[in-house]
Amino acid sequence: MRDFSQSKRVVVKIGTSTLSKDDAVDTEYLRRIAAQVASLIAQGRQVVIITSGAIGMGAGRLQLKGPVADMKMRQACAAIGQPLLMQEYQRAFAEHDIAVAQVLLTAEVLSNRKTYLNLRNSVETLLKLGVAPVLNENDSVSTDEIGSAFGDNDKLSALVASKLDADLLIMLSDIDAMYDRDPRKHDDAKPIRAVFEITDEIIRSAGKRGSKYATGGMKTKLEAAKIASCAGCRIVLADGRTDNVITRIMAGEEIGTIFMPRRKLSNRARWILNSAAVGTIRIDDGAMDAVRKRKSLLPSGVTAVEGDFKADAVVMLNDSAKAVSSLGSAELAKLAGKHSSEIRRILGPDRKDVVAVPEDIVFLDY
Fold first, then answer.
1. Among candidate residues 269, 286, 314, the one where a domain is terminated
2. Could you tell me the pTM of the whole model?
3. Which residues of the chain are modeled with pLDDT < 50?
């Protein structure tokens, strides 16, 4: 369960509160992290780093007091803090003669199939060159409210681990483990060392916790673990301030909580599952039964179309599944309830006669 000797690709996520000290990056801590990552690279492993801290560094540079609530100000802080943050990473890894590369992401980049593939190819190239990619949410241009898209990079780290086929995701946080109850309220709370299934009950019971500039909590970490479980990726959640935490985790020590994967979906299935749906196709019970049996979704089973989307967009099928629709919303509205043979008569020749094929349908209750 904690044998990581064959783990070749590792994603390390460092939370804001773990990385920061006095409204700036804790340079000594980052140097220790760099040394541990350098050791993994020397062993022939590939390491991707997901970092937080840009907003906090920008706020510190501007000498702002207290949490920064205004979105425009948070965007400004991120723009100021990002180069400062990368400067610290460059200095820490330069001691080990390792180059670092900055990669800034938005939710749209990961949801769009073309940009996602471009990202994957770029990171793959960097890893082959022995570079340590440092990824962060592009808070200064994000169209979503900062923190809502990825949850202090918890979700981002899981998406990256999933999309890059990582073997292990190490989440370094100020949360040292998952507990059977809230340790802040119950003195007898006990850490759970291994989780084999993330149930809805566990997610509902997760409380919220955040620091001055962070937005994450136990709930976002559980959601991240659920995403990574679809990729066959193990997650270890641990206190980032534990001495030599990365090295000790890789050695198999029982630190923090390990989340075990349920099964590994295909890369495309994971992309569909983790992409934001841009609309909903309502289908009848017969159509739902058919797609659950790995059959194509036909227009005859469509009862309604919600949203405005183009062909090849990721959409919801009722509230049960996600799919890549071969038809746009305007076309589907014309075909709802009609037999497949009528598609070419209505839309013209050389048109697909199905809404979605089995390979492009992924159920949420995987």
1. 269
2. 0.79
3. 143, 145-149, 209-215
